[in-house]
Amino acid sequence: MTYSNGGHGLDAVDGDGYSTWDAAYVLGALSSTERREFETHLQTCDRCRSAVAELSGMPALLGLLSEGDVRGLDGDQPEPPPLRRNAGFPTCGSSSTRYSRSSTCSAT
Fold first, then answer.
1. Taking CA atoms, which of 15, 41, 79, 107 is between 20 and 30 Å from 89?
2. Is the model more confident about 13 or about 45?
């Protein structure tokens, strides 16, 4: 896994440069060199071992998906429901708004 800064694992989360390698490891996306490097790291890192354990069933679950299921994930997604207007909150520009602002909101 080569990162944008040119290093390996340097995009650290909480100071652990390997913390983002767990899913790639479980899914077999690391090179053989990276895999060995990560496995060495796993020997001393409880957090990464736990993350790998949590993800370990993912390949089997993904294997249950049909080709049609996967293709359906790329399709058009339904529009989220519209936000409810006036759900007990003051509307923009009303005199009961908490803050006084010079700008007004436009209704959509």
1. 79
2. 45
Bridge partners (DSSP) listed for residue 13: 16
36, 25 in Cβ contact below 8 A?
Answer: no
**What are the tens digits of pLDDT across the range 25-58?**
999 999 999 999 999 999 999 999 999 999 999 9
State which amino acid sits at residue 99: Y
Question: What pLDDT score does 13 carry?
Answer: 58
Mean pLDDT of all residues in 59-84: 85
DSSP secondary-structure letter at 46? H
Neighbouring CB atoms inside 10 A of 81's CB total 6
For the chain, domains (ranges, CATH) are 1-64 (1.10.10.1320)
Rounded-to-integer distance, Cα 70 and Cα 75, Å:
9
Structure tokens at 93: 């520009």
Residue with the two structure tokens 């429901």: 81
Cα separation, 30 vs 97, in Å, equals: 54
